[in-house]
Amino acid sequence: MPRRRITQTDVAAMAGVSQATVSFVLNGSTPAGVRISEETRQRVLDAIRITGYTANPAAQRLAGGLAQILGVFTYEATFPRPSRDFYGPFLTGIEHAAERLGVDLLLFTSAPVEDGRRRLTREGWQRLGVADGCLLLGQHEHRGELQHLLDTNYPFVFIGKRGSDGGRLPYVGADYVSGTVRQIDRLVALGHRRIGYVGLRGTDQPTLDRVEGYRDAMKAHGLTTRFVELEDTAATAAEIVEQRFTAVVVAPENHPEELADELAARGVRVPDDVSVLLLGQPHHLRRGGRAWSGFSVPREEMGARALYLLSRLAADDGPRRERDARRPTAVTEAELHQVLACPDVEGATLAPPGRTAR
């Protein structure tokens, strides 16, 4: 369980000095008549480094109380682009939850970009201290940064299932495993036996979970797993025809509309000849496009649930006299790791085996 945040009192105890001395060292100045030796100053700095203490300007201004501000940090660009709106539903759920809780949101956008993704290094740690806690989301997080947040007891919640040493990392994720298993069950119930998995097998958690669900379900039905991992959509369509699949499950980021077009160009129709189930709905639907069968990811609910959890962790971290009765603390071990069900979508791309099977 996340512990309380490191305070100046903890730093003072480790350094063997008063809290006032710690404050003087942090502020870089001392009042008239007060002298701090270089040895004492270095002990304080060493204690700050060891404990990972980060000053919280907002909390200092409120004399140790909560600032009623919760942060949001994303490892990729946040606002929608013309072709992609991955974060939109998350942010909608977060905003609605913030309104109900009566807290303000602070979007952290100034973190430096390193190797194509944002990093919390350097001044990023200090900036997080403005908020009582922070939501983190993104497909390319930095594990070392998450571990640092755990080690310094800063309240945070990751949106998306994530692992950590000792299972201490709080998250609200989607149940891709069970969702994928159900799609295979749907196909088998209709008579499909040659079912392929289309998509690159990366190391991100959603992909790992989808592959796990596919493997488990195929094994449970006594069927052979078959993967198509080609990046080129035309080559993928050709492989589906070559493998004589009657159905495929596809991650939504693998351009399902373009894939269906390529299949049609080869005389293979969806779903008459091959059923296509998406393991999560597309971020943007093509105008006049297909109604895809599969499951959807409850991104808006994930955002809301994550903010509720963060609010409770932050309240538990602050002084008891400042806690809001609307946000009970007592976070259980199970509540730290929430996985939400992915509801099935009926769609129009699922049918019994057709001409290809015959």
Automatic annotation (TrEMBL):
Annotated HTH cro/C1-type domain residues: 3-30
Pfam families assigned: LacI, Peripla_BP_3
UniProt-recorded Gene Ontology molecular function terms: DNA-binding transcription factor activity; transcription cis-regulatory region binding
Organismal lineage: Bacteria, Bacillati, Actinomycetota, Actinomycetes, Micrococcales
Protein name: LacI family transcriptional regulator
This protein's record includes keyword DNA damage: no
Domain of life from the UniProt record: Bacteria
Residue span(s) of domain HTH lacI-type: 6-64
